[in-house]
Design brief:
Length: 350
């Protein structure tokens, strides 16, 4: 970092900022301002970190604008990876595309998107694999077209990213047994469904018919079984505990979950599960909490992709200005959930 500042290296812009103790100002590495003495330099991963330490942005180099440009460049590279996901894309090739050194690219890409270029390409390949399997293409052809060099890698990733084997996914969940139940709640109809690993679906909707159609679209060939007390006592108990929580009379039930998403999404969802009842975080704090402080938009997108309402508490995340932001199941529900959880957490323990 000291060398990048001394050389005013534009390739380092967006990777970090540096501050000068004697002026109280922070800059991007390529800033053309007067060089500072080495002992007066401090380095920060982001403008937000520099400002938290009491430094103000340089008016000459505008570090925030540099960060935006760096983020846009990494988003452009991500689109390139999406388009060429099935190709071999070594880090040196991607670095050439971005006009950066491999080390700078690795750092900038992970800061902007929360994962390495390799992990992003793996996720893009899995997405392509899922699309081909859903279209009915043969499993081996789908694996080859998606760019995987061996079936062992795909099957190793399947439990995390598909929730089932590729053959089962291609068959629309054939062979999976999913029990579901629907209840009228204060928030409207609620449907909860579970595999033998845990809850895989918890949604509010306009009606039971609409919710059943959404569940069927997610698992078109799975065996979907309406829950009955005799058949699935556990699921029935889970949904009663869930109702008590959203009614504001009990804490969030600690139910087993069958999380299905990309590696980045699951990192976000697992962080959300650690937020205590009654506490709130911003999208910026969420991104920082998973170790990807610049991946704020990606973290917000992972919240929006959450299929398990309330149990994965994305309603506990607000915008930086304290406003509610978005919520898949409506802002009115988000507001009520936050208010009830705050009231519940404020009650004195027995």
């Amino acid at each position: 970092m000291r060398r990048a500042v001394a050389e005013r290296d534009p390739a380092a812009d967006g990777a970090f900022v540096y501050a000068v103790r004697t002026t109280g100002v922070y800059c991007r590495p390529s800033c053309r301002s007067r060089p500072a003495k080495a002992q007066n330099l401090r380095f920060f991963a982001s403008p937000a970190a520099a400002e938290q330490a009491g430094f103000r942005p340089c008016k000459r180099c505008n570090p925030h604008k540099a960060l935006d440009r760096a983020g846009e460049a990494m988003q452009s590279l991500a689109r390139y990876i999406d388009q060429h996901a099935s190709d071999a894309l070594p880090l040196a090739h991607l670095a050439k595309q971005a006009h950066l050194s491999p080390a700078h690219l690795q750092r900038k890409f992970k800061a902007a998107l929360g994962v390495s270029p390799k992990a992003y390409q793996d996720a893009a390949r899995l997405k392509r694999l899922k699309q081909r399997l859903k279209a009915g293409q043969r499993v081996l052809d789908s694996i080859t077209d998606a760019g995987f060099q061996s079936t062992s890698r795909v099957y190793g990733e399947a439990a995390r990213s598909l929730g089932m084997t590729p053959a089962s996914y291609r068959a629309g969940g054939a062979g999976e047994n999913i029990a579901y139940a629907c209840r009228a709640t204060a928030f409207g109809p609620l449907m909860m469904a579970a595999t033998d690993r845990g809850v895989c679906f918890a949604q509010f909707g306009a009606s039971e018919v609409v919710l059943a159609a959404q569940l069927r679209a997610e698992f078109p060939r799975a065996t979907l079984t309406p829950s009955r007390m005799a058949d699935s006592k556990q699921l029935d108990a889970w949904i009663r505990a869930f109702e008590a929580h959203i009614a504001g009379t009990a804490p969030r039930p600690d139910l087993p979950l069958d999380l299905r998403g990309t590696a980045f999404q699951i990192r976000v969802w697992r962080f959300l599960l650690k937020i205590p009842c009654g506490d709130l975080v911003s999208y910026t704090e969420l991104a920082a909490g998973i170790g990807a402080p610049k991946a704020v938009r990606a973290a917000a997108s992972a919240c929006a992709a959450n299929r398990i309402a309330v149990l994965v508490p994305c309603h506990r995340v607000l915008r930086g200005d304290g406003s509610l932001g978005g919520y898949r199941w409506g802002l009115d529900r988000k507001r009520v959930l936050i208010d009830r959880e705050r009231a519940l957490s404020a009650e004195p323990s027995a």
